[in-house]
Design a protein that fits this description.
This protein is mainly α. The chain has one domain. Helix 1 packs antiparallel against helix 2.
């Protein structure tokens, strides 16, 4: 099981450095892990739920970060509109 997860991780991490793993990558890794697990020694349910909870938290943080970037851009636009322009 560990070798299958490692090979799936190395495949997913072959992306350029500026790209991050997304939801599709997480689902691909999770399904690969479940598909290749040893039926006599399956992955612990608590471990799987913990991974899903971590990804959910990460997704929420990512959404909050995008929202804050949008708010920041809007505030910058308002501030630049309020700043008096001096003639050249």
């Amino acid at each position: 099981m560990v070798s299958s997860v490692s090979s799936a991780t190395s495949t997913a991490s072959a992306k350029p450095a500026n790209q991050t793993l997304g939801q599709a990558d997480f689902i691909r890794l999770l399904t690969t892990q479940l598909k290749n697990q040893d039926p006599t020694d399956p992955v612990d349910n608590k471990e799987t739920i913990a991974q899903m909870a971590q990804f959910s938290s990460l997704s929420g943080i990512e959404n909050m970060n995008n929202t804050l970037k949008t708010i920041s851009a809007q505030l910058n636009a308002v501030l630049s509109a309020q700043t008096p322009q001096t003639p050249a």
